[in-house]
């Protein structure tokens, strides 16, 4: 990885003698190889500092398709001294002067904000102050295989939506292996905390005005919910109508196969939360499977659907069902010992995962 990093190199690029604007530059970051230069490479690769022999073994294992034996150790001990110092400063510096010093420090090493639970405010500030460098560093970490925590990814997404930066948010959602339903729900719940606080406050006032005094347990629970929501409420951002429209477009991108997979293997609670926050319509927003949302709320899948057929699979009829349906192997893995050769061949033809074919 040679070359200079992000803003400097991108500013020098030109299209017909004309400098690209910020959106064009960031679009390139997501579509072209990222060159971070010596400083950028050092900032990312020294997490943690390993000797040459360990680093060499890790590199060989990675390129041979093996799991890096030092990866778990690396992520557990990433730059302990700098990370601990950063976390102490984030907790202790609340004034504007101190905050600007903290942002300046993170600007020099932007990867620190992704390997720590930095909080919404810092992500929001950095997406504004070092926009290109922030997104380039995030993409480099994702492409290198570094596992950013779900909580941090939700903060990144929420900060982008709070900035109304739907271009970058949509690019994140396009990375389906990294940003999915769980991250979307957590980000929306964070931005929706203001509305939830108002709901609980209204409920508390109604309880206090009742003639019959409510039980102390109900009042204390209501107050506790308000305090919990206030502790995570972001300084800016909400679930606006524009954001809901973008979420609905993202929902429309899900294929029939993906929704059937969600219905078979994933908890329905997240889809119920999404429907509540974004007012999803079962027919308009799930045109490929209109019964999907009602099914999440407890209704049975219709007769003849894959979900309904899979619910009836037994050792006696599994081969018959596989012959006429693309049943996910993960759903019938426990019955693999009764699959005949014809069923195995059919599963291998429609399975996208190579490991499924290796019996």
Any key phrases for this structure?
single chain; 359 residues; mainly alpha; 64% helix; globular; disordered N terminus
Task: Please give a structural write-up.
Residues 46-73 have a biased composition (Basic residues). Residues 1-24, 46-86 are annotated as: Disordered. Residues 9-24 have a biased composition (Basic and acidic residues). This protein has helices at 6-12, 22-31, 37-45, 52-63, 71-76, 80-92, 96-108, 112-115, 120-129, 131-143, 150-162, 166-174, 181-191, 193-209, 216-232, 241-252, 256-265, 269-278, 292-296, 306-310, 318-324, 329-332, 341-350, 354-357. The chain has 359 residues and is mainly α. Helix 2 (22-31) packs parallel to helix 10 and helix 9 crosses helix 11. The radius of gyration is 25 Å and the shape is globular. The two termini are 39 Å apart.
List the helices and strands and how they pair.
Layout: H1 6-12, H2 22-31, H3 37-45, H4 52-63, H5 71-76, H6 80-92, H7 96-108, H8 112-115, H9 120-129, H10 131-143, H11 150-162, H12 166-174, H13 181-191, H14 193-209, H15 216-232, H16 241-252, H17 256-265, H18 269-278, H19 292-296, H20 306-310, H21 318-324, H22 329-332, H23 341-350, H24 354-357
Helix pairs in contact: 2-10, 9-10, 9-11, 11-13, 13-18, 14-15
Region (Disordered): 1-24, 46-86
Biased composition (Basic residues): 46-73
Biased composition (Basic and acidic residues): 9-24
């Amino acid at each position: 990885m040679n070359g200079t990093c992000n803003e400097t190199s991108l500013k020098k690029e030109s299209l017909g003698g004309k400098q690209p604007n910020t959106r064009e530059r960031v679009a390139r970051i997501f579509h072209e190889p990222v060159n971070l230069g010596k400083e950028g490479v050092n900032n990312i690769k020294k997490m943690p500092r390993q000797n040459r022999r360990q680093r060499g073994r890790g590199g060989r294992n990675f390129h041979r398709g093996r799991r890096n034996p030092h990866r778990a150790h690396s992520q557990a001990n990433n730059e302990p001294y700098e990370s601990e110092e950063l976390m102490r400063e984030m907790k202790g510096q609340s004034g504007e002067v101190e905050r600007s010093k903290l942002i300046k420090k993170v600007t020099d090493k932007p990867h620190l904000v992704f390997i720590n639970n930095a909080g919404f405010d810092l992500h929001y500030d950095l997406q504004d102050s070092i926009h290109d460098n922030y997104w380039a560093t995030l993409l480099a970490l994702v492409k290198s295989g570094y596992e950013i925590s779900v909580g941090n990814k939700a903060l990144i997404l929420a900060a982008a939506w709070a900035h109304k930066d739907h271009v970058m948010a949509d690019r994140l959602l396009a990375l389906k292996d990294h940003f999915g339903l769980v991250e979307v729900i957590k980000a929306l719940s964070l931005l929706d905390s203001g509305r939830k606080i108002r709901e609980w406050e209204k409920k508390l006032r109604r309880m206090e005005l009742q003639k019959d005094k409510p039980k102390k347990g109900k009042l204390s629970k209501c107050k506790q919910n308000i305090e919990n929501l206030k502790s995570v409420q972001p300084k800016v951002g909400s679930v606006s109508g524009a954001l809901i429209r973008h979420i609905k477009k993202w929902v429309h991108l899900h294929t029939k196969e993906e929704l059937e997979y969600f219905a078979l293997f994933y908890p329905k609670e997240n889809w119920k939360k999404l429907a509540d926050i974004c007012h999803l319509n079962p027919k308009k927003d799930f045109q490929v499977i209109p019964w999907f949302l009602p099914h999440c709320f407890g209704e049975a899948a219709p007769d003849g659907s894959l979900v309904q057929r899979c619910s009836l699979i037994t050792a006696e009829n599994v081969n018959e069902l596989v012959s006429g349906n693309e049943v996910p192997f993960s759903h019938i893995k426990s019955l693999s010992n009764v699959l005949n050769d014809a069923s195995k061949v059919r599963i291998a033809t429609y399975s996208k995962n190579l490991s499924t074919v290796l019996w």
